[in-house]
Give the backbone structure.
Amino acid sequence: MEFENQTAIVTGAGSGIGRATAWALARAGAEVVVADIDPAGGEATAAAIRDAGLKATFEPVDLTDAASIARFAEAVQARFDGIDVLVNGAGWGRTAPFVDGTPEFWNKVIGLNFVGPMTLTKALLPRMIERARGRIVNIASDAGRVGSLGETVYAGAKGGLIAFTKSLARETARYQIGVNCVCPGPTDTPLMAVVPDKVKDALIKAIPMRRLGKPEEVAEAVLFFASRRAGYVTGQVVSVSGGLTMAG
């Protein structure tokens, strides 16, 4: 299997796109570290993967807490010889007018969607550089590419993650470390489940393929960037949006 003898971390793997990505990497042979703030969801994902005869462990992390990130990074690096794949998949937002936002809400959105992934990457990158190999895949959002009504701060955070991806790719290419970004469009996840039906219907009408994306379809794009097939690909951004966003 392609990822045999490799270790992959997937944040946000307790549900949605993160869970689908953890499964995809495990099926491809990786030993997956399921990382999530939700112990029940994270443990459930790891247990289900193990029940299928594949390799997974759960490790809790709060990406809005620098101390939690440090503990997580120390724990996984003590347990494994090296991390081959890091998928920064955790994310969260809430649709509301920008003028109704509060600093507390903004800080949570920016912390989880941008500062947290950046902090975790910083903690794990020195060992990747030392080993002269590794793949980092950041899951951003098309909101960060083209904007999104009612998600201004979320879009800003995801836009920052996209720019971070491109800049870090330039710094790490000399060490044969690939850094790429996947931008999902509207996807059938737990976050989408709380969106009003009339909003979902409008989204579906705007999508050329006339349906929401599946978490597994986003996971396939992540799997490509994490694989040897993307060995000469770095600093790139791909949208998985059913054709909704086609901007360059």
User: Anything to note?
Assistant: Residues 69 and 85 are 17 Å apart (CA to CA). The two ends are 34 Å apart (CA to CA).
